[in-house]
Amino acid sequence: MLKEELRSRPGRYPRASAESGATGVEGNERLTAAAGVALVVLLAALGVTILSIGPLIWWHVLLGLLLIPPVLLKVGSTSWRFVRYYAGAPEYVRRGPPLLLLRLLGPLVIAATVTVFATGVGLLVVGSAGGILAGLHKASFVVWLVATGIHVLVHLRSLPGVLAADWWRRPGRGQVPGTGRRRLLLAASVVAGVVLAFVTVRYAQPWVHFFAARGGGDG
User: Fold this and answer.
1) What is the pTM of this model?
2) How many CA atoms, within 13 angstroms, populate the side-chain half-sphere of residue 46?
3) Average pLDDT rounded to a whole number, residues 96-125
4) Domain-by-domain residue ranges, the chain?
């Protein structure tokens, strides 16, 4: 069913034109794709820390905090498309709805993402006493990992073409107005994440002591 739906969308990322009015849709898709790739790279690094959470807790918190602004950018760009489509914006309606699977997964991915990061920040506030929060953090991460993994796999085929349009092609070839702004938005979200992480990572110290007292166990 998914393959049939994909095949029914010829020119998934056609060259935008003023006549088609698709520049807003194209720009949104390209920003979402670029943010998604950045998140995959950062989340892969975060995943390494989970393999040995005790010794790597400081890095786990640092990367988790760094991810917050890029995650907000990705959630914002994805939500914008949903809102514009269901609000009846002509260019988004012409593009068509997101794949059915993505429409079903979207709310779950967003809810799990918010829960993972909210509970993570909450654990920094309450420290090792947050037993319920720790349980929610772990459970929501599992849900988030599965839902996001499916989400990424569905988009995997189209990602190279979308990214090439804004990041690898020479200026003027298949570009959509706003390339510079999209690059700036993505870069700004990463920089904001770095600043946020280094300003607030000191709150991870109680967790560093907690795992150290347990002999560095993964808990």
Assistant:
1) 0.79
2) 19
3) 87
4) 21-213
